[in-house]
Amino acid sequence: MRKPIIVGNWKMNKTMKETKEFMEAVDGVAASDNATYGIGAPYTALATAVAGAKNLIVAAENCHFEDTGAFTGEVSVPMLQEVGVTHCIIGHSERRQMFGDTDETVNKKAKRLIDAGITPILCIGETEAQYDAGETEKVIREQLSGSLANLCPKCVGNMVIAYEPIWAIGTGKSATKEDAQNCCAIVRDQVRVMYGDEAAENVRVQYGGSVKPNNIVEYMACPDIDGALIGGASLKADSFIEIIEKTK
Ligand SMILES: O=C[C@H](O)COP(=O)(O)O
Question: Where are the catalytic residues (predicted)?
Answer without folding.
Answer: 92, 164
